[in-house]
Amino acid sequence: MYHHVKKLMYTVNVDTPNVRFGNMLLEQFGGANGELAAAMQYTIQGWNCVDDLAIRDLLLDIGTEELSHLEVVGALIRLHLKDLKTNREAAEADPLVTIAGGGGVNLYNSQGNAWTADYLKITGELDVDLRSNIAAEARAKIVYERLLDHTDDPGTIDTLQFLMTREITHMKAFSAALESMEKPPFSIGFLKPTPGIVDEYFNGSTGDGSDGDTDMRGPWQTSFGLHPVDSEMNGGAGLSVQDIDGTEGQEARGKQDIGQKATTSPFADALSQTAPSTNKSGASGIDTHPSAGKKAAARSKSKK
Amino acid sequence: MYHHVKKLMYTVNVDTPNVRFGNMLLEQFGGANGELAAAMQYTIQGWNCVDDLAIRDLLLDIGTEELSHLEVVGALIRLHLKDLKTNREAAEADPLVTIAGGGGVNLYNSQGNAWTADYLKITGELDVDLRSNIAAEARAKIVYERLLDHTDDPGTIDTLQFLMTREITHMKAFSAALESMEKPPFSIGFLKPTPGIVDEYFNGSTGDGSDGDTDMRGPWQTSFGLHPVDSEMNGGAGLSVQDIDGTEGQEARGKQDIGQKATTSPFADALSQTAPSTNKSGASGIDTHPSAGKKAAARSKSKK
Amino acid sequence: MYHHVKKLMYTVNVDTPNVRFGNMLLEQFGGANGELAAAMQYTIQGWNCVDDLAIRDLLLDIGTEELSHLEVVGALIRLHLKDLKTNREAAEADPLVTIAGGGGVNLYNSQGNAWTADYLKITGELDVDLRSNIAAEARAKIVYERLLDHTDDPGTIDTLQFLMTREITHMKAFSAALESMEKPPFSIGFLKPTPGIVDEYFNGSTGDGSDGDTDMRGPWQTSFGLHPVDSEMNGGAGLSVQDIDGTEGQEARGKQDIGQKATTSPFADALSQTAPSTNKSGASGIDTHPSAGKKAAARSKSKK
Amino acid sequence: MYHHVKKLMYTVNVDTPNVRFGNMLLEQFGGANGELAAAMQYTIQGWNCVDDLAIRDLLLDIGTEELSHLEVVGALIRLHLKDLKTNREAAEADPLVTIAGGGGVNLYNSQGNAWTADYLKITGELDVDLRSNIAAEARAKIVYERLLDHTDDPGTIDTLQFLMTREITHMKAFSAALESMEKPPFSIGFLKPTPGIVDEYFNGSTGDGSDGDTDMRGPWQTSFGLHPVDSEMNGGAGLSVQDIDGTEGQEARGKQDIGQKATTSPFADALSQTAPSTNKSGASGIDTHPSAGKKAAARSKSKK
Amino acid sequence: MYHHVKKLMYTVNVDTPNVRFGNMLLEQFGGANGELAAAMQYTIQGWNCVDDLAIRDLLLDIGTEELSHLEVVGALIRLHLKDLKTNREAAEADPLVTIAGGGGVNLYNSQGNAWTADYLKITGELDVDLRSNIAAEARAKIVYERLLDHTDDPGTIDTLQFLMTREITHMKAFSAALESMEKPPFSIGFLKPTPGIVDEYFNGSTGDGSDGDTDMRGPWQTSFGLHPVDSEMNGGAGLSVQDIDGTEGQEARGKQDIGQKATTSPFADALSQTAPSTNKSGASGIDTHPSAGKKAAARSKSKK
Amino acid sequence: MYHHVKKLMYTVNVDTPNVRFGNMLLEQFGGANGELAAAMQYTIQGWNCVDDLAIRDLLLDIGTEELSHLEVVGALIRLHLKDLKTNREAAEADPLVTIAGGGGVNLYNSQGNAWTADYLKITGELDVDLRSNIAAEARAKIVYERLLDHTDDPGTIDTLQFLMTREITHMKAFSAALESMEKPPFSIGFLKPTPGIVDEYFNGSTGDGSDGDTDMRGPWQTSFGLHPVDSEMNGGAGLSVQDIDGTEGQEARGKQDIGQKATTSPFADALSQTAPSTNKSGASGIDTHPSAGKKAAARSKSKK
C-alpha cells in the first residue's frame, strides 16, 4: 500500500528556465533509463520476490524512492517548460508537450516517444535481476551526468546532483545484495555450461581496419579460463562444436535453495530432497554449497 | 564488412517437432533478451567505441557471434514450426506466424510482439555498456535454462545447451574487459556523487505484511559505507537533503582518459591538459589514477 | 514523496489457481485500462495541476490509491500464475511470462503487449482531464465486471469486487470535481465554436442495411440545439461551410480564471484584466460567469 | 460501404505557409487525439453496436464525418509543409516527413511517432463508449484551440475554427445519446458495487507541500454519498476492507436489456427471463426500470 | 469527403462460428497487411499525389474500396467471435478482445498487437509508391489464401474468396498505372546510379551448408548487365569501391516532369527549364524521354 | 555463420560535419527503409526459403551486404554527430542521441523512434517476398536521393552515391529472380481469383474537386481485362457481388512445385500427385505450366 506526502524529496529551484533543456530532462521522466523505469523495475521485481523477503524489502525500499524521484524530476521539468504555454518559439522545442499536453509533463522521452515497459528488465531470477539493476543504476548515473554537462543553471545543477548521487547509493545497495547471495562467479541459474566450449573465446571479427582497428588481444581472451579460438574462415579450427548430448550438471543455488524457486525449472521442487532425474550427467552436478546462508544470517528482521 | 558462410555455427537437430515449444523459442529470436538484441547491442556499442580499439574488437567479436547464434535459433525454430503449415490445430499455437508469415520465423517474441530497439541498452560510456552486457548475458542464460526446462527433445536440448554455454563465455569476457578498465568501485563517469547523501540507505517501505514480509535489514544497509535512514513518515529524520550547491568533483576516468571521451561532457577536451573550470569544488576533484593502463599493457595488437 | 507500507490494501486469497485466468487478469495490471494506467494518468495530471490545489489533491489521492490497487492486482495474478513455474501445459498459457519472466508478473496485458504511455489521456486542461478520468473509471469498472464474469473462485471474486467498487467511488469523486468547476455545458477551453455550424448534425451514413440498420433518428439530432442536415450526396444541402473569417469569441473559464491557465493560449495572461486583442469577434466573446467560485467556496483547507 | 467525393468538407486556404506549424498540425492527423483516432474509435464502436441500431447510426454518422475531417487536416498540413521539398532549413523542422515521406503527410504526430491503435478506447459497452467519446471530443477541442493559439494565418484559423466547432457538435450528440439511455448515475455495466466501500473517499496524499499544496477538502469528498476516510498511515482507520463474500447484486441495464448484451456476462442471456442464478445476493439485485424505452420511443426510422 | 452507405460491399454469412478462426481473421482487420493498412496507404498516397490527378483518382478509388473491405472483414470476424461473450473456453482464444473489448472487433492483429502506422509504406514518389502497393496487394492475397486454407465454413469461404479476388483486381490496376508512367526499367527518382558499381553482384554468402545450400548461381547474377564479384574474403577482388567523386547524372522523370515534383530535390524546380547546376557530371545526365506522355494521352477526364 | 572483417565496404570521409544532417541520416540506420530493415528482411526471408536454395543464396548474399552497409552508414553518421559531445546547441539537434546515447549511433530514425520489426515484410511466399524486396529497394533508393539533395559535403555525397547505387543493383537482382520463377502475371499463391469480379474496376471516388481533381480515367481501368464499374451510390450497378459459392480453382505454382510449399495450404502436399479434393471447381483449376523449370535450368551449383 502506498502513501503520498505532499512534499518533494528534494527542493527544486530553477533560476533561468530553458525550454530545450526541460525537453532534454524528459529522458529521466519518461525515458528508457528514467525514474519511472527504475521505479517499476525494482518494485515489480520486489513483488515477484517471494523467496527472499529481505531482498524483497530492499527492492521495495529503492523502488519507492524512485517514485519520489519521478516526482522531483517532473517538478524540475515543469519549471523549465513554463514558456511553452505562452511563447510560440518555445513551443517548437516540444510541439507534442505543447499542443497535446498544454505544457505539462507526460511520460515521453526527449524525442516524444511514449514510455514503454519494453524498457524493463525483469526475469524473476533474483541474482540476475540484481545485475540488471546495477547496470540500470550505472546508466541512470551517466545520463544525469550528461544532463549536468548541458546546464549552467545553479538550481537545476543542485537537483540533478542529488538525483545522480542517489543512483550511486542504489548501485552500492544492489551490489551488496548480490554479494550477500554468495553465488560463485559466472554461476547463473541452475544448469551448468558445457566445459570446454565455455572457455573458447571466438575471434569473430578480424583484419586491419583503416582506423587502426586491427585484431587485438586483451585479458578477456585469457581470464577466467578463457582461451582464444580462431574462426575456420580465418584459418582457425573454430569452436569445438561436436554434439553435447544433453544438458550439463546443475549448479548449487546458494541460499535461494531454501525457498521456492523463482525459475520455472521442473528440477526445483526436487532439489531439496534428491538428485533430479532428467539430468543426464547425474547428481554429481549438484555441488551443495556449505557456506550458503552465512551472510544471510547477518540479516535480521527489524520491526518498527 | 560482413561475410556469411553457409554453415550453422552449431548443428541443429530436432527429434520430435513441437509447435508450441517452437513458439516459446521465439523469445530467443525476436525477444527482449534474444540473439538479435545481443548482436545489435554489442555490435553498435563496438561501432561507437572509437576510444579503446581493443574493447571495440571484443564487442565486435561477440556481436558477430550473436548473429551466428540468431541463425542457429532460427533454424531450430523452423524445425519445430513445421506443422504450422499443414495442421489447423498447430496453426492456433501461433496464428501470426502461420497466417502472416506462412510458417516461417520472423522477429517476434513468444507472444507475437515485434522486436524493438527499445530492448537495447547502449550509452556510449564503455564501462557502463560492459555492465549492461554482463547483465544481458545473465538474462539470456536464464532464458535458455528455462527453455531447457520445458523440452525433453534430445536434439533441441543439445542446441540449447550450446547456446546457453556461450552466454557464460561472453559473461566471462565482458567481466574481464570491465576489470581491465580498473575503474574504482561505484565510479561511473566523471562527476562525483555528493558525500554523505551517497551513503544514506533510505527505508522507503516499512511495516508488517501478511506474508511475513516485515521491515528487514541486510548487508545492503551497511556495506560500502552505507547506513540506514528512516523516512520522516516513519518517525525518522529522512534524507539529509539540504541544498548541495553545485556538482561535486570529478572522478578519474582510468585509461579511457587517453582517448576521446564517449561522454558529452564539456570537460572532456580540457581534461588531458588542465583542470576543468566549471567544476565548483575545484581541480582537487581530479584524482589521477597512477596505475591506469597497467592491465592495458597486457593487451597487444596481434595481426593475423 | 511516496511511502510504501508492507500491507496490501485488500487481502488477496485464491482458492483454485487458474493460469489462464491469471493471464486475463494482466489486463488490469499492464493493460490499457489497468491500474498502472489509472495511477499514472491521475498522478501526472495532479503534478501538472498547479492552478487548483484542491483538485490537485484529489488527483493525487486517487492516483496514489491506484498504485495500491496495482499491488493488489499483482498479488492476485501471482497466485493464479503459480503453476507456470512447474507445469509445461500451464506455461503455454503465457509463454512470455513463463520464459522471459520466470512466472512473475510484468507490465504486459493479456496478450503480452508491453504497457505504453500511449494509453494515457493527459491534456493539462483540468475539466477535460476530469472527463477523461470519468470515462477511464467507467472502462475500468466494466473490465473488472468481465473478469468477474469469467471466474467462480470465491477469493478472486472477493478481491475483484473490491477493486470494481473503488472504480465507482472514483467516478463519483471525479464527477463531483467536474461539477464543482461549474463550467457551462459543452464549454471546453476558451474559444467559442462557430454558431450555426455547431448545431448541424450531419447525416454521414445513410441507407438500408441488411441487418435492419437503416437511417435512424434519435434525440442526438434534436437536443441541445442540434438539427439534422443531410449530405449533398444524399440530396441534402450539406453543412453550411462558407468561410468563417477567424475564430469566434472566447468562453468564460469558470473559477479556473483565478489561477494561471493550463492552456497554451496567449490570451490567458490578458484574461483577468482586459479583453484579448487578437480575437476577431471582439471582447463581447467574454461572458464572465458571476457564479464562478460559488461551489469553490465549499472547499476549505484542512490541515492535519 | 464507403464512397469518396472529390470535394473537401471545408475549403482550405493558407496565406503564409509555416513548416513548423504544419508539423504541429500533425497532432490532429496522426496524433493521439486526432481525426483518424476519432474516425476509427466511433466507426468501430458502431460496427460493434448491434444491439441499438439507432446509436449505431449515430456512431457511423460521426465516424464518417471524422474521416472527412482527416482529409481536411491533411490538405491543410500539405499546404504548410510545401517548403520541406526545396528548403534545407525547413527540412530540419521534420526530417522524417522530408526524407522518408518526400514532404507528404503520413500518420505521425508532431514528434514523428507512428499512429497506433493504442490511442483508441473501445469497450463494446455502449454507455461506456459514449463517455469515452465525450471525453475524446473535449480533448480534440482543446487541441484545436491550442493550434489556433499558435497561428496568425487567417486561412488556417478559418479551417481550424471549423474543425474545432464540429468537436462541440459531436460532444452534444454523444451527450444526448448517453442521456437517452437513461442509465442511473454511476451505474456502469451489470454488477453493483459493494455498499459502504463505494462511498469511502480515501485520503491517500497528505501533508503540507512547499507550494501551498496542503491536504484539501472539496465536494468530491461529500457528494453522491461519499465521505472522507483517512489512511491508517495517517492515523485514520483506512478503508473498511473486510471480506466481501462474493459479488453484489446486479443493476438494471436500461433499454439495452432488449437486445443482445455487449458484455461477456454469462448472466446476459438469462436476464430477460428470470433472475440470474450465480448472483449471491439474489434476484433483488434486478431493479427493472419501467421507464426504459421511453426516450427510445422518440427515435423513429427515417428512410430516405 | 466521405459518405457511408449502410450496406456491406459483400454479404457476410457464417454457418459455424469458430472463435479461434475469428481471431486469425483479425490479421486482415488490424494486421500488418490488412484492410486498414491498405486503405490508409493508398488514401494518404492519393492525398499526397497532387502532380498526377489521374493516378490520384486511382489511389482514392482503391483506398476507398479498402475501407469498405475493412467493414466486411469486421462483420465476418464479429460473427465468428460471438461465443467470446458467453463461453469461458472461447474467451481464452482471445482474452484481449474478450476482456478489454467485450467481444467486439478492434484494431489488433491475431496476436493482439495494436495496429501501427509503421506498417505503411508511403514515400511521396509516385512510381515507388505504386511498387509498394503492388507488393502490398500480393501480400494481402496470400494472407487471404492462407485464411481460406484454414476454414471449411462455406459462408466464410465465400466472403474471403471475394476479398482475395479484389486484391488481384487492385494489383492489376496498380501495375497498369506503373506501366502508364513509362519509366525506364530500374529508374527510380532523379539521380543516376554509378556505372560499373551498379552492375556488380556481390557474393556475400559462400560455402557448403549441411542442408545442401551451397554457393549457387542464377540469372540474378547475369541479367540486366549484372556480373558476379567475389568477396576479397573469399579470394575475390571485392566491389570496385574507389571514390566516386560526386553524384552521377540525373534521369528523366517521364511524364511526372510536367507537374510539381514529389521529391524534395532542389533540382526539381529547375528541371523544366535548364540543366541543374550542382550536378557534377553535367547536364548530359538529362536524357529527355521523347515518348513521355504517350500513354498519358490515353487518359481523359470523364466527369459524371 | 557470420564473420566480420575490420574494414568498411566503402571508405567514409566527411569534410564538414553537420549534426542536423547526421540526424537525418539516421533514417538509413534505424529507419523504416534503412539498412537494418533491408538486412533483416532479406536474411530472414533467406533462412525461411528452404524450397529454392538458389534464391536462398541470393537473399543471403544481399542480406549480408546490407549488414555491411549498416556499418558504413553508422560510420558516416558518427562523423557528422561529433559535435553532439561538446556543443550544447548541437545537442539540441538530437537530445536522445546526446543524452541517452552519449553521441553514438543507435537504432533510431531521424525523429528518435526505435527501430521495430513492424517495418519488415516477410510472408514466406517466395515471389511475394521478392516483390516486397523490389519495392523496398526502390524506397531505399529514393531516400538516399533525398539525403543527397540535402548535403553539399563532398565526402558524404561520395558515400551516399555508393549506397544509392547498390540499391539499384539489388533491385535488378531481385527482379531477375522474380522473372526466373516464371509465374504468370498476377498469379499469386495457389488459389484463383473469381472470374468476372476480378476484372471490375470500382469507381469509389467521384465528383469534381476544387483542385481540378475530377473523376478521371486511365489505363488502369481498361488494361489486363479490367473494365470500370460505377458505384450504386453514383447511379451505377456496383460490383457484381452475388454469392461466389466456394473458392475458385488453383493456379500452378511454377517451379516452386518441386519443393515443399512455403504456404500453409493443406493442398500443397497433394499437388504433385493428384488434384486436390476440397476445391469445388475441380482439378481443371490446375494449369500445369510446361515451361516451368526452363530458366531454372540456367542455374547451376558453383562450389568454390
Describe the model.
- The structure is a homohexamer of 304-residue chains.
- In chain A, strands 2-4 form a two-stranded parallel ribbon.
- Residues 254-298 and 300-304 of chain A have low confidence and may be disordered.
- Chain A is globular and about 70 Å long.
- With 304 residues, the first copy, chain A, is mostly helical.
- In chain A, α4 runs antiparallel to α8.
- Helix content of chain A is 38%, strand content 5%.
- Chains in contact: A-B, A-C, A-D, A-F, B-C, B-E, B-F, C-D, C-E, D-E, D-F, E-F.
- The interface between A and B is large, with 128 and 128 residues.
Structural features:
mainly alpha; globular; homohexamer; 304 residues; disordered C terminus
The interface involving the most residues is between: A-B, 128 and 128 residues
Low-confidence segments of chain A: 254-298, 300-304
Kindly estimate the percentage of residues of chain A that lie in beta strands according to DSSP. under 5%
Give the N-to-C terminal Cα separation of chain A.
Answer: 17 Å
